[in-house]
Amino acid sequence: MSHDDWTANANQTVVVSLVAPNTNSESGLRTIGSFHPKFTYPIFGDDEAIFGYRKLQIELRYSAWDMRPNLNISYSKKFPGQGDTQAADIKEILHDFLPEVAFQNPRDFEAAIRQDHSGWTPPGKLVTSFDSGDKRLEVWKGSLGDPTVNQLLRRIQIFVPFFIEGGTAIDVDEPDADRWTVYFLYEEKKSTEFGKSEYIFAGYSTVYRFFLYQKPTITEASNGQQDQSKKDLVLNGDFDLSDLPCRTRISQFLVIPSFQGKGLGSKLYNVVYQDYLQHPQTVEITVEDPNEAFDDMRDIADLRFLRTTPEFNALHLNTSLLIPKSGPAPKDILDNAAAEAVRRKYKIAPRQFYRVLEMHLMSKLS
Ligand code: ACO
Question: How far apart are CA 165 and CA 160, in angstroms?
Answer without folding.
Answer: 8
